[in-house]
Design a protein that fits this description.
The complex is a heterotrimer of chains A (551), B (429) and C (427). In chain A, a hairpin with a 2-residue loop joins β17 and β18. Chain A contains 16 helices and 24 strands. The model of chain A is unreliable at 1-7 and 536-551 (pLDDT under 50). Chain A has 551 residues and is α+β, with helices and mostly antiparallel strands. Helix content of chain A is 34%, strand content 21%. Chain A folds into three domains: 14-54 and 160-237 and 341-381, FAD/NAD(P)-binding domain (3-Layer(bba) Sandwich); 91-156 and 238-326, D-Amino Acid Oxidase, subunit A, domain 2 (D-Amino Acid Oxidase, Chain A, domain 2, 2-Layer Sandwich); 398-546, no CATH class. In chain A, α1 runs parallel beside α5 (159-174), α1 packs across α8 and α12 packs antiparallel against α13. Chain B starts with 13 loop residues before the first helix and ends with a helix. Chain B has a four-stranded parallel sheet. With 429 residues, chain B is mainly alpha-helical. Chain B has three domains: 29-101, no CATH class; 117-273, no CATH class; 280-428, 3-Layer(aba) Sandwich (Rossmann fold), CATH 3.40.50. Chain C has 427 residues and is of the alpha/beta class. Chain C folds into two domains: 6-107 and 262-317 and 359-426, FAD/NAD(P)-binding domain (3-Layer(bba) Sandwich), CATH 3.50.50.60; 137-252, Rossmann fold. Helices cover 30% and strands 19% of the residues of chain C. Chain C is globular, with a radius of gyration of 22 Å. Classes of the chains: A alpha+beta (551), B mainly alpha (429), C alpha/beta (427). Chains in contact: A-B, A-C, B-C. The interface between B and C is large, with 48 and 43 residues. Chain B: This is Fe-S oxidoreductase. Chain B: Keywords: 4Fe-4S, Electron transport, Iron, Iron-sulfur, Metal-binding, Transport. Chain B: It holds the Pfam family CCG.
Chain lengths: 551, 429, 427
Amino acid sequence: MEPSTSRFSEPAHDTVETDVLIVGGGMTGAGIMRDLALRGIHSTLIDRRDLCAGASGGNHGLLHSGARYVSNDRESAVQCRRENVLLRRLARRCIEPTGGLFVAIDGDDPDFAAAFPQWCSVAGIACELVTPDEARRLEPHLSERIIAAYRVDDATVDPFRLALQHVAHAGSLTGSSYRPHSDLIAFDHDNDQLTSAICRDSRTGALLRIRARQFVNAGGAWAGRIAQLAGCPDVHLRYSKGTLLISHDRLTNHVVNRLRPPADGDILVPGGTVSVLGTTSLRIDDPDLAVPTVAEVDRNIAEGAMMLPVLATTRYLRAFSRVRPLLPAGDDGDDRHAVRGFALYDHQGDGLTNFCTITGGKLTTFRLMAQQAADLVAARLGNTTSGRTDTTPLPEDDSCRWTEPGAAPRYWHLAGNRDDMVLCECEMVPQSAIDEIVRCAPGAEEEMTLEAIALRSRAGKGPCQGSFCGIRIASYLYDRGHYRDRTGLQHMRDFFNERFKGMRTVIRGPQAAQMELAEALHCGVLGLDALDDEDDRDPLTQRLETGATDD
Amino acid sequence: MAAETPTPIPIINFKQQALQLLPDGASFDACLTCGLCSSGCPAAGIENMDPRKFIRMAMLGMNETLSTTPWIWCCTMCRRCQHVCPMSIDISQLVLLARSNWPNDRKPAGIVRSCTLIRSTDSTSAMGLPPEDFVFVVNDVLDEVRATQPAFAHLQAPIDKQGAHFFVNQNSREPMSEPDEMVPLWKILDLVGADWTYSSKGWAAENFCMFAGDEAAWYDVTRKRIEAVDDLGCSVWLNTECGHSYYALWNGINRFDLDVGFRLESLITYYARWIREGKLPVNSDWNRRAIKFTVQDPCMIVRKAYGESIAEDMRFVVRSLVGADNFIDMQPNRSANYCCGGGGGFLQAGMNEQRRSYGKRKFDQIQATGAAYVLTPCHNCHSQMEDLADAWHGDYHVVHFWTLICLSLGILGENERTYLGPDLLALLD
Amino acid sequence: MTKERRHVSCQLAVVGTGLAGFAAAVFAGNRALDTALTGNTGALAYTTGYLDLLGAMDGGGPPLDDPWQALQTLQATQPEHPLCRLSPASIHAAFTEFTSFLGSAGLNYSPPGRRNETVLTPVGTLKKTLCVPSTMAPGTTALTDKKPCLVVDFHGLKGFSARQVVANLGGSWPVLSAARLVFPGMEHGEIYPEVMARSLETAATRAHLAELLREVAGDVTTVGLPAILGIHRPDRVRAELEKLSGLRIFEIPTMPPAVPGIRLRELLEQVLPQRGTTLIPQQKIKTLSFEKDAVRLDLADNYGPIVIEAQAVILATGRFLSGGLAADPNGIREPLLDLPVSQPGSRADWFREGYTDRRGHPINRAGLSVDDSCRPLTAEGRPFDRRLFCAGIILANQDWIRSRCGAGVAIASAYRSVEQVRQLLGD
């Protein structure tokens, strides 16, 4: 095997050391980090963007009961059932036990509906028949055309809070650290060992060498690429793009699933104060090119409205796409038929003894995936402690509490401090939350981007999608000295650009009014569309700038 | 006696209720969260609440906070937030909903007491003045005027006159506390030759049942007053110088989908008409010292009801009375005017500190005009602005229209000058 | 209950009380046309107060110093642009007439000049505009002359940071510093510019603030404040504050909800009726029908139904924010008359991928197509009705956001429409 990294061997960059380097800050990576820490092992977690930037953050937030998979993937169904029960107990604050409904509509395959309870029973999944009328009493928005309904133990999970708390817990146990926006560009080898990884800070371009004894690839949809950097060509994944929508309101209390073989727009999941509708499924070749399209949005809405007619007229705030990493299996062309299991590669066959890859799977089974990877890593390190994530409750950490919808105003109102200004008015995020995040949230930095703050709070998640609070939070960060020059304006612009990606395909109805106001403000007034050349626009400014000093 | 443990306030699901309250073309989920509502709301900041926060908390499901916040008694439901909202969202509906949800023993006692008193007699008087006492006071004052003011030896104050054109209402404060203040009104009606009557039943103007959020009581009072007008067969229910009395009846009729055979009109409209027609030959010649006047637009008859037309009538009357050069408008004004903080039952709610903080904006508005007098055809505005002058150390006075009309006409009796400052009193000497 | 339908009869009805609608009412009033004006005023309250004519060419390009020359280019490259419906000389006349009106009503503006002014934004970037409120104009002078300057912000005022303004302008403005004050009487909690501005209309607050400013200014003689210098007579508030403090004072616009827009709105709502316009504020037209003898507009205010009968109508209902256009899933619609809307082929084409793309989004160029007289056209390309005209950013073939031409389009097309109405009624 050819070492891939000789050009980075000059000592021109900082070096840090850790026992285990975990690549990929999705739920699996964060889970491995905590699992290792519970065994007393120090790790460093890196992500080229930030926590849950891939499929972990881009999903329904559905903690499956397992019922979704009973018809075609019993193993996943059983795994989901077990993990669902565990997580509800151990990560209580990240989970809302909403319960779920499976509903069939006039025209859906009655045989599928009839077989459903039997399939559930085989997988050990609780499933209760309810009449269509009862179902509508539980969820008044349900269609009149329901012909069958079952109640199951689906729940919802806030993956961001879950990941943040995992990272915070690992940090408190072993001092394990998390580094966002660290793009892995190469590994150093020494025979059958990887010795270090080279990362580039995607914001500053600075290089960093991370020395470690063990290396874990938890790159999700990007795991194949990461494995290749390590010289392992055998991780083959298929990429299935799914597009989901977020509505302005929470439309149901339960998770509502369509009782039919998995298809487009067949699940609506409450997410705190909103609902998430999805998903479509489309094979793509490049996981970096997953953006929602208007056609996918319309498809989701049309299908979803069959179950819940209100979905045709409700106000949507954003749409997003995620890439499911699917393991190769029998290929009939429909990725929904692929099994949703996961795989752990030890890469022994590639001649490496301290590198492994874990990928596939789904949010609900992240803990199990993390445990299996950590078992391997611990064994390779000679650590004989067994995994404890199935028994250890996830502790609370104040700095992680701001992602919960509707929580910020409760804390703020309880504190009753009128000098604690609410900066994000939609989700009512006060400046004290921003202070706490910038000071001590996992991944906190001196000059945090607005996106990073938004990931750790509800800022920018409401109807204005950050168009006002982006300005207010930036000006607050200038006030506090976190932003000191024009890069603060770039952070603002980048934040608005990022929020727009999600809004672009759902701008219609009232959202068009919101967008017009936002764009008039951001571009028409503040000139964020012309930021790059603003310094060139005024010759006098330019001339003086060269000779001027900043006081 | 109040119960030892107060009744808990039930928790409302505001979002669910909001969906059922959708006003025409504006829904709560259309909010752009721009903040114009809060920027323009005098209650913003009181109890750490403002209209935008109220909407957002409703949408975020903070039902317990909203169900129990005392802010709903500081919001006067003046609907200025809706007036400045590009999406025309009406937050006052949610506030009224929250008010109606409070158990009676938790609501501000002053408002509840006023509503109870309104229902305690056929007068519908918030001060509990029974019909016979009202009749007595009116006749007593009338006798005295006839005896002491020779020009008005034949003054009339008809009560229960069948078929009169105008059914005239009266705020209870006059017959109860300052009966002489009724006289200028009688003189004006006499002068223009109006065919009018009081009624011994349903004569009172005020309706705190609406402010209490007590729908059943509001309906009850509305019905009683409609019956009183119908009993006498009057064509016009003429609302005198009281703001919410108009709104409570007019809105009550619409809200409860009642059918009435008479028109609801404001005395302000008639002042303007009578001046234009020459029936009230007022002029401003008396104002030789160029004393400055401003006018307070009561939300209840301007923004929430008649709109610009009555605001314009009010200004026409004031200019005619004091001289165009001596009239200075408050800013903002007309439909955009601020509530004074006396509305919505705030004056009766016992939350003085909050009420005065709310009213600071009104006080600044008045101060900015530099006017020595504020004219307003609303009792709550009147009382609140007087109180604000005390609380924030202003040196203006508040007067009724009828006082100034009679002053201009030279027929303001000795006992009818309570609200005049020394400068105006000096002019009369 | 007896409910009377109120009737208004007039020569011209203007639908929409944004900048275009108000400008149309101003121009109509100046031409002695009997005018009724109605509409929802919200969006106007969001403006900075700057009146842009043309700050950049459509589709990107550098900020423009000479908008008049750029208009010539526009004539050649985009003859369909609403600013090309009238000559630069007429546009100049329209700006002059409109700003003179505002000045005569107590809100002074710099007259339209030969070049764009460079003005400050709330975050310390710079912007090109044509006419500047006189409360803000000294900021442009201070910027050009690089005068030593202090930017002041206030405890409790969110979204305006003096440190931010200084951080972003300091590189080009050698002696620029920041300070924070507690606004008199507003020691705690959140405060709004509107409330501060109202308070500054009282002598007591002005005296108090002047004292605070004097103390904090030190040796510096020029001070920039967020736009809070009164709503009603800002020039007087500024003059008195300058007199009391001995400082040169200017305003920097703030993010919404901001004072300059509220100023414009309240001023126009007050002054137009005084000058004879019938104003029915904060109401939306329900139906607009073209009858043989008159155009009939039906609406209702809180009190009840109103009918306006007019000889001509100017539609100035704005875009999505004001309800002049509706973004339905199946396409963009003009909801009042269902006029054909020029628009991209499908919803997928409304927006580009990048939000701040310099080329602007295709949806921004959607709108009503008009003839040279500003009359909306039917699908067949004929005027919808000879009595119907159209003004403001509802017009197609312009991107007011990217080209910084919102006020320009509003004022110019209002001017053109009113001229055409006068011609029609004079016939």
